[in-house]
């Protein structure tokens, strides 16, 4: 992978090495497919999980079965919220500066200053006239100039304006307007491109969708999905390959990349791939809940 890729969302819950996820209701024989793949935004179609009669799967498909796109989205977002903040619901006010060179990591999916995601969140919040919009406005040029990227994680070294910005962002995270803005930004910049990549690759399972969404979020760019693909030889279903084998090799390739990255802060984030490998081994291609995550301890229902 191109080492110049910006890590657009914080390195995540860095202390969670060994995170494992096992779905209590997983079935190795069933890999439900999101029904119809409607628009990922405000999808209310197919609100229930249905299972058609067992039939021979088409070559390379990780099916049969059907799961609504809304449910696939809900569970995928919850998994990534655990990765980023330790909470399935996410923490909209979560604030961190890690040793990954990305500056401030903020919000439900830890959007960073370096990638421009935080800039988009703050700009959107100001435009939406959130409770703290006028107070945050003067800091937008600093974010656009990536001034927080050069700061050390040690708060005792921060300039006064950085402490003030932290207080404002944490406070704004409690504002429902900020919740709406964050969800829209993460949907537009990461979820929709991940769905598009998932479709273009010929993937059909919710687990495969969660895997490519994680790459989009964690690396700060949907383009990272293609960079991982070039690190292994298995063909995707669109080219006649087997979905389950492709997803496994994709996760293993991304794990190797994280474990050896020049940004050593990323090494500990292999827990994300270990969690996906557990779900693959459990046969939970439909992301059936409850999904139990042990480090940090969380259950997605």
Any chance you could write out the topology, listing elements then pairs?
Layout (H helix, E strand, L loop, with lengths): L20 E3 L9 E2 L31 E2 L1 H17 L9 E3 L6 E3 L4 E2 L4 H11 L5 H4 L3 H5 L15 H13 L3 H25 L5 H14 L4 H6 L13 H17 L11 H11 L9 E4 L2 E4 L1
Parallel strand pairs: 2-3
Antiparallel strand pairs: 1-7, 4-5, 5-6, 7-8
Helix pairs in contact: 1-7, 2-6, 6-7, 9-10
Task: Briefly summarize what is shown.
The chain has 301 residues and is mainly alpha-helical. It is 41% helix and 8% strand. The chain has 10 helices and 8 strands.
Tags for this entry?
disordered N terminus; 2 domains; 10 helices; 3-stranded antiparallel beta sheet; mainly alpha; 301 residues; Chitosanase, subunit A, domain 1; globular
The percent range for strand residues is 5-15%
Radius of gyration: 19 Å
User: What is the total domain count?
Assistant: 2
Q: Which secondary-structure class do the elements indicate?
A: mainly alpha
For this structure, the CATH topology of the largest domain is: Chitosanase, subunit A, domain 1
- Listing every helix as H and every strand as E from the N terminus to the C terminus, the arrangement reads EEEHEEEHHHHHHHHHEE
**Number of helical segments?**
10
Distance between the termini: 34 Å
Helix content: 40-55%
Considering the protein shown, what is the CATH homologous superfamily of the largest domain? Chitosanase, subunit A, domain 1
Uncertain spans: 1-33, 35-65
Task: Indicate the mean pLDDT.
Answer: 82
* Strand order, largest beta sheet: 1-7-8
CATH architecture call of the largest domain: Up-down Bundle
Largest β-sheet summary: 3 strands, antiparallel
Give the CATH level 1 class of the largest domain: Mainly Alpha
What does the overall shape look like? Answer: globular
